[in-house]
Amino acid sequence: MSWIFKKVSLQIIFIAIYLIAGNLAELGNPYEILGVHRTASSQEIKQAYRQLVKEWHPDKSKSSSAQHRFIEITQAYELLSDPERRALYDRKGITENDYSNIPIKTYFTQNPFDDMFGHSGAHFNFQENDIMFFHKLSVNSKQYDKIIIPKSEKTPYVIFFYTDWCFPCLQSAPYYRKLVDNLEPLGIRFITVHSGHEPNLSRRLNVHTLPCLVLLLDGNVYVYKETISNIPKIIEFIKNKFPYKLISKLQEENLEDFLSGWKDNKVRGLILPSKQNLKLRYLVTAYSFRHRVSFGIAASDKIHSHYQVPQDMDTVLLFNENISYPMASISMKDIPMSTLHNIISSNQYLALPRLSSQKVLEALCPSEWNKPRKKLCVVLVTEESSIHDPHRQSFMRYAQNFPYNVERVRFAYIYHKKQASFINALTPGGDITEPLLRIIVLWRRDNSLIRYEWMPAKWELESHLNDTGTKLVETITKLLKSTETLSYETYVNDLFDEHAVGTIRRTIIRMSQFLESLYDNLGKEQILAGLSVLGTILFILGIGYVMVHLVEKEEEDIKKQKANANSGNNNNNSNTHQQELRLYELRSEKYNGLVRMLKPGCRTVLLILDMQSRQQLIPPFHRAVWPYRKNKTLHFAYMYIERGLTWYKELLQLSLFEERELNINPRNCVGTVLVLNGHRKYFCVFHAKHKENKVRVSRNIIKATEKDCESGSFIGFNSDGSDSESDEVLLQGNLLDGLPNWLDRLFEGSTQRYHINYWPEFPIK
């Protein structure tokens, strides 16, 4: 029984809403409510309405009657802003909707309380503004994507967004119902969407307020932002959103050019209206048949007289290749849409159409498995050239005079180059070396399976008068028999769509549609915000461009200064080149800067040499340290052992922490590289015969033997190599061969560090 109570509760809610709406609908004199004269213009009425709304809006007014007064003002404005309702009030004093004359349809044929109480009670007839009217037309997102959008290619759709507890939606129901009754007979379809149940669809279609009216054309969405009670504005809005130049405006000067444009494979439709204005029914018809028929409208008296049509009636003429006389016509005061569609559907192809797309092929040559109902297509292969125009005209006259089985035989022509893939599939064996001006008879057994037969001779200008035309009649008559079959069979791909829009044009159309939709959907606040963001971005880009320009200019100035400095130098090019790597000689005056006063983290790479080895050791040392030239924490220097022998001897003595005096041969020191860290007071040593895999003892003291003081280990470290190894003789040019690898280990931190307590004094000489 719970479902019964739920149903009754729902009906009671609807009754309450209807009674409230009915009470609010009782309106007094709308002119007195708005405080305007009966002769006031629409602009004066709008200004008065705006001022009263500001005063009586429930959010701004503290009066207890503000809400009732606000609704009364709104209803008065809606009545006076609608020309039809205002005229009805001025004539008869009727303040209610003029839709009350429409017979009321009840959605419940039986009183819902009869089933509960078993007797007949009071009957409530729900009016047009009942929410059930919206529910009957409601669709969901899946239906919208799968059904509505594909159908919108040929049929315009008007979508109404609503919710259950939306009082303005209930007020808009009579207007929407009138819109449905007036426009649905013209071919426009109406649906509704429950915004509460389909929030994603509402966001996709840019619905911001309820109720909201949306027009859907070929998948493109246009939001109507005016009041729904103004029916003429809605109709004008729909008219303006149809594709540009859907119906061309014609005069005597361009009429012949329009009718002669049938080479685009479209029939010409000429509309001769009784009035100057363009009716919505013709726009809807032209939109539905725009792929097959091009429409033009002419309101000239001379054109009416030329075609001898009545000027007090609407006339539609359809022309094929013969522009002097229409192939179909209709004249009525108000042409019914069904009659108009039937006439156009029956005459939407030329007398000799071109197979220009797969849709045209399927319409002219439908696939049929039933052999007794076999339908043949007789196709002439030509080229897109005026040279073949006489052949096509001759073939068209032959098709118009073909005597037999016209309903089962369809004549057409095809362009060879544009449909080369299709034609080549029909000439697999090479029997037809030249298909131009040849006739092929087709029977489509399936969407891709075709049986065909080529005529042996080419079609000449007067072939319909000689053996070729007679042979074609005999072949077609024979093939139409159920016992006869066509000679060849093959699979083909779909025809190339010759009317497809190119990429550039499609992009331009999409961009224009997007901009139009953006303009329609954005309000003043969104436009101002967007312009503000755009201005900020342009300002930032402008500042960035100026900064880049200044930097480039400064770099050019520096390059010019360097070029001027180089040109003023009298030295050779080799001398003007400034090396990136500078080598300092370690002397007493530079000792503090290179060793003692080094900044934290900085080190000096020092090469020890003598006067005789300078020419052989400086180049390999330069090559070894060249990759580190851009390291600002490194300094590169060299020292003559003759100048710094006492300093070097004392440095080694400090690292050994022993009192015995070292016996050092200066020649053995040549080729040694020291890396000095002045701040942390340690150094690392590279020598060709110095091995760092020594045995450590406590406090980092490494003992030396007297044996190897003169053999290359004079620095004070034990060598765990053999005697033969210590007795090796190295050439002076090979002393620095292992320096690059040692530098890699140095910067990895894997070399031995020798710490000292202080830096010894450098001798002054």
TrEMBL record:
Lineage: Eukaryota, Metazoa, Ecdysozoa, Arthropoda, Hexapoda
InterPro entries according to UniProt: DnaJ_C16_autophagy_reg (IPR052448), DnaJ_domain (IPR001623), DnaJ_domain_CS (IPR018253), J_dom_sf (IPR036869), Thioredoxin-like_sf (IPR036249), Thioredoxin_domain (IPR013766)
SMART domains, A to Z: DnaJ (SM00271)
Any single Pfam family the record assigns to this protein: Thioredoxin
GO biological process, one term: autophagy
Organism: Rhynchophorus ferrugineus (Red palm weevil)
Membrane topology term: Single-pass type IV membrane protein
Domain annotation Thioredoxin: ranges: 102-243
Domain J per the UniProt entry, residue ranges: 29-93
Protein name as annotated: DnaJ homolog subfamily C member 16
Keyword terms of this UniProt record: Autophagy, Membrane, Transmembrane, Transmembrane helix
Described function: Plays an important role in regulating the size of autophagosomes during the formation process.
Localization (cell): Endoplasmic reticulum membrane
Transmembrane segments: 527-551
Gene Ontology CC terms: endoplasmic reticulum membrane
Superkingdom of origin organism: Eukaryota
